[in-house]
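Quick one:
INPUT:
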């Protein structure tokens, strides 16, 4: 089985680590989390998160610490900003592998479950993107895995005690990453699981040790942030938790109750397509499945957090990432038992449907893009990006070849290997085949980098909130002023030392007519509008971003270029 384990490692390195820095950073999340962590490294304040020199109370500190360590190690680049997400996903997969391996003693099942997890669409998307969902999912998984293994040990033996302590430490680290979610999700899994197994008394016994370990883990930073910023806990608890969960129109990202259903279906792609095979596997071994404690735990892991997130008023697609390990266990168990039972009919039919969709898509897209290259119709890729879109088509061809190989063999092990190889090629190429037109509005740093020589220490920089994250990352300017409003920094801008950072239109026009600083005034915003801003000495408008450099008081009438 060692070759399968090395295969898993190779897949992880190939799609998560090696191409991680090939894509430009995307606004706002990647610039935000990169910049906050970079300011920690450079300013030396490892207690209070700050964005562009302004207090940022939306999240605790662990995610920024992880990013800061990465930036300190690898330097200021896209790879470093994303590394903690990729590493968190890899460690989550390792915990999942160890859980299934130790509990079932089935190396094939542990390998398949892990492979399904790391090649699920949402897991891959989040794991190669700089957000905090991958780290919080890691710590929630750590809590659940160690707590479940503790439940499987004889009571109050040394191994159980240590597992419960580790579960508590992991929950504490999760709290330091994204707050009370790190306690709520494990509770929603553990309590139903213990009730299902008629072990309700343990609900009042087992949590005490993990709770103590979690408190000890959190307490040093909790005290430090309170001493440094007394307002932090009120804002973090009331606004970021109570209002976000129970709010309606006032909540961030309000979505309907059913919002996460399509996210779950699409997020598990391509493995959602093999769900009928997995269900047949469960039906065939229904009694065994029902009595399997790991499958019970996995069912609780998937279902109850999913319901909880669905009840929340504020929703983003990435929120349900902690449900995916449980789902991978369930799909993997059913699929493997289906194939081991030599029942390949539905499996092969599904593969043929995927092959048909891929070939139609590849031929249709190639014809469409060739017409676009010759200016017959507007295309997704620009004419000079032919090699890029050919890479995308090539990934589809490789996937089709893998499906053909899979259909030709009756060995279920080989079938599963070829099944996984297909999406791996697509995920690897996805790092390299993004259309430039799609990136233009989101990869704002690509445009702003060309103007770095215009921004010095004596330059007054004014940016609209819709471009402030990228501008802060590219220009390293902690004195940036915010045009009209501060966006997500509104809370931090209420403090006396930050109140003068927001400038309205009238204030900006007055600034233009004052004696200039040696570096002049730079104004940046995104959108198809000028917002009453007069022409500058130098202007460049591209990719929806306006960059203006005023070198003298605004008396000239030069037209924008």
């Amino acid at each position: 089985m060692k070759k399968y384990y090395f295969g898993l490692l190779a897949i992880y390195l190939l799609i998560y680590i090696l191409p991680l820095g090939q894509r430009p950073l995307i606004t706002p999340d990647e610039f935000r989390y990169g910049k906050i962590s970079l300011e920690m490294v450079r300013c030396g304040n490892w207690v209070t998160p700050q964005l562009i020199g302004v207090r940022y109370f939306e999240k605790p500190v662990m995610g920024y610490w992880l990013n800061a360590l990465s930036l300190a190690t690898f330097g200021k680049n896209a790879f470093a900003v994303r590394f903690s997400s990729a590493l968190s996903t890899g460690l989550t997969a390792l915990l999942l592998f160890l859980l299934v391996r130790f509990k079932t003693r089935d190396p094939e099942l542990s390998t398949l479950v892990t492979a399904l997890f790391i090649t699920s669409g949402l897991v891959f998307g989040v794991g190669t993107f700089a957000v905090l969902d991958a780290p919080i999912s890691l710590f929630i998984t750590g809590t659940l895995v160690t707590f479940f293994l503790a439940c499987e040990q004889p009571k109050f033996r040394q191994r159980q005690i240590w597992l419960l302590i580790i579960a508590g430490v992991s929950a504490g680290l999760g709290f330091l990453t994204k707050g009370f979610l790190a306690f709520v999700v494990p509770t929603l899994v553990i309590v139903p699981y213990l009730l299902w197994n008629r072990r309700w008394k343990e609900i009042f016994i087992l949590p005490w040790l993990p709770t103590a370990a979690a408190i000890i883990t959190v307490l040093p930073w909790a005290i430090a942030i309170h001493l440094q910023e007394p307002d932090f806990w009120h804002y973090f608890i009331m606004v970021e938790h109570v209002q976000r969960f129970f709010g309606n129109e006032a909540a961030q990202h309000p979505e309907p109750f059913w919002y996460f259903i399509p996210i779950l279906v699409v997020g598990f792609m391509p493995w959602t397509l093999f769900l009928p095979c997995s269900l047949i596997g469960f039906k065939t071994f229904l009694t065994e499945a029902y009595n399997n404690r790991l499958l019970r735990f996995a069912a609780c892991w998937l279902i109850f957090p999913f319901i909880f997130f669905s009840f929340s008023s504020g929703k983003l697609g990435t929120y349900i990432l902690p449900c995916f390990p449980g789902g991978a266990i369930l799909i993997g168990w059913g699929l493997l038992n289906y194939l081991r039972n030599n029942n390949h009919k539905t499996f092969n039919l599904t593969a043929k449907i995927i092959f048909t969709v891929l070939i139609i898509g590849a031929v249709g897209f190639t014809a469409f893009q060739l017409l676009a290259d010759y200016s017959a119709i507007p295309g997704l890729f620009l004419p000079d990006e032919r090699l890029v879109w050919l890479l995308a088509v090539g990934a589809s061809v490789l996937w089709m070849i893998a499906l053909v190989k899979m259909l030709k063999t009756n060995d279920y092990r080989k079938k599963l290997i070829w099944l996984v190889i297909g999406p791996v090629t697509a995920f690897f190429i996805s790092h390299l085949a993004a259309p430039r037109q799609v990136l233009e509005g989101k990869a704002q740093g690509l445009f702003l980098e060309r103007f770095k020589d215009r921004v010095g220490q004596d330059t007054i920089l004014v940016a609209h909130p819709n471009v402030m994250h990228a501008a802060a990352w590219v220009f390293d300017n902690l004195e940036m002023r915010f045009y009209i409003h501060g966006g997500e920094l509104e809370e931090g801008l209420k403090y006396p030392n930050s109140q003068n950072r927001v400038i309205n239109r009238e204030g900006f026009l007055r600034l233009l007519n004052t004696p200039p600083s040696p570096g002049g005034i730079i104004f940046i915003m995104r959108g198809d509008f000028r917002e009453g801003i007069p022409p500058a000495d130098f202007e460049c408008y591209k990719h929806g971003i306006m960059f203006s450099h005023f070198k003298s008081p605004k008396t000239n009438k030069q037209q924008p270029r």
